[in-house]
Amino acid sequence: MESELWPVLDDFEDSVDAISETLKPLLEQNLPKHASRLPLFDKAKLYIITTYALETLLYTYLETSATPTADHPIMKELTRVRQYFQKIRDIESKEPKQEEKAPAASSSARVDTRENLVLDKAAAERFISAALAGNDKYDIERAENTRLQKERAKEKLEELGEGVKDPLGQRAPESSGDDDDEDGGVRLVMSDSGDEAEKSASATPAPKTDGVEDINDEERAQINSEKKRKRELEAKEDNDLKKKSKKGKSKKAKKEKSTKKK
């Protein structure tokens, strides 16, 4: 019996020495201070392993002192710590699976959202108008462009109205009213019936072709001069707009420089 006991005691001493050497770096420093530097998962593992090591030493002491351990509270504590070990293993085994599933899930979700994506144009217009509402420069440019478009459309209508002539190439007789003189419009002489046209033709002598050609040339020259004047006005307005935009850009650049210097 004694011959069998001594080798077991030697093995036990060797195990104690190995455990002491392993735990020496951990026992020489403050455990909570060392654990505070670790990540949360490693911190939990450190506390569980330390608890299991201490309880194992207690269990070994009880066994060597011939104390019955079947109903001892140390067995419940060891079982509880082993459950924590199992939880750690489950977490470590789930992490790689979650990392593999995450790219696939994100790609599928992205595909689903792109397929079902519908643009709400009304909402987009509201967002854009709300974002640009406080931009004074944008509001000024938009109002100026709208005004120029209206003026150009009005000028084109006036040009079309001035180019209208009566079929016979004659101007309508000037009316006695002041409104017709101020407007300077051209009225067409229209006959209600063929008899009235014949009477007016017989009553008034036929105009000379030279006079008609002279009148048409004068009108063409007047129209061309008005078009030229309108083009000059448009060019002047465009130049003014460019100058205003340049001034706004220069002011903005100066403000940015001043803010950078500050």
TrEMBL record:
<feature type="compositionally biased region" description="Basic residues">
    <location>
        <begin position="243"/>
        <end position="262"/>
    </location>
</feature>
<dbReference type="GO" id="GO:0005730">
    <property type="term" value="C:nucleolus"/>
</dbReference>
<dbReference type="GO" id="GO:0000460">
    <property type="term" value="P:maturation of 5.8S rRNA"/>
</dbReference>
<feature type="region of interest" description="Disordered">
    <location>
        <begin position="90"/>
        <end position="112"/>
    </location>
</feature>
<dbReference type="InterPro" id="IPR011082">
    <property type="entry name" value="Exosome-assoc_fac/DNA_repair"/>
</dbReference>
<comment type="similarity">
    <text>Belongs to the C1D family.</text>
</comment>
<keyword id="KW-0539">Nucleus</keyword>
<keyword id="KW-0698">rRNA processing</keyword>
<feature type="compositionally biased region" description="Basic and acidic residues">
    <location>
        <begin position="155"/>
        <end position="165"/>
    </location>
</feature>
<dbReference type="InterPro" id="IPR007146">
    <property type="entry name" value="Sas10/Utp3/C1D"/>
</dbReference>
<feature type="compositionally biased region" description="Basic and acidic residues">
    <location>
        <begin position="231"/>
        <end position="242"/>
    </location>
</feature>
<comment type="function">
    <text>Required for exosome-dependent processing of pre-rRNA and small nucleolar RNA (snRNA) precursors. Involved in processing of 35S pre-rRNA at the A0, A1 and A2 sites.</text>
</comment>
<feature type="compositionally biased region" description="Basic and acidic residues">
    <location>
        <begin position="90"/>
        <end position="102"/>
    </location>
</feature>
<protein>
    <recommendedName>
        <fullName>Exosome complex protein</fullName>
    </recommendedName>
</protein>
<dbReference type="GO" id="GO:0003723">
    <property type="term" value="F:RNA binding"/>
</dbReference>
<dbReference type="GO" id="GO:0003677">
    <property type="term" value="F:DNA binding"/>
</dbReference>
<dbReference type="GO" id="GO:0010468">
    <property type="term" value="P:regulation of gene expression"/>
</dbReference>
<dbReference type="Pfam" id="PF04000">
    <property type="entry name" value="Sas10_Utp3"/>
</dbReference>
<keyword id="KW-0694">RNA-binding</keyword>
<feature type="region of interest" description="Disordered">
    <location>
        <begin position="155"/>
        <end position="262"/>
    </location>
</feature>
<dbReference type="GO" id="GO:0000178">
    <property type="term" value="C:exosome (RNase complex)"/>
</dbReference>
